[in-house]
Write a structure and sequence with these properties.
Helix content is about 85%, strand content about 0%. It has 6 helices and no strands.
Length: about 140
Amino acid sequence: FEELISNTIEDTKDIPETLSETGKIGIPHKEIMRKTGELFILRTNINSVGSVLDSPEVFWSFPDLQPLYDAARSYLEIPQRINLLNTRVEAGLVLQDMLQLLKESVSSRHAERLEQIVVALIGIEIVLGIITILVDLMA
């Protein structure tokens, strides 16, 4: 998971730089949604793995095995790794916020285009209405 988080951060680190330099997003809506989905999957997977911090229910029946489990967790540095992953996921939350902002910007641009199309169609309808009235008056 550590590598996946690093790769995700690496893949998206250019977006703010490009946005600040050009003022344009330069990423299609589909790509933004794909990256957002990847972040959600990554966070879900990390949270499900984080349950290894809890002691399994088997230790209720066999409490003498608990020290062995604790020793294995300590040897594998599970709590430290989970803490590191959580820290890295917080960086992922910043990425998610940025992707959400980009998605809203792209959606806003799409809405503006639709509004322009509606205004153009209304203008065409007015022109056709005027032409119809003039034709009726001339006849």
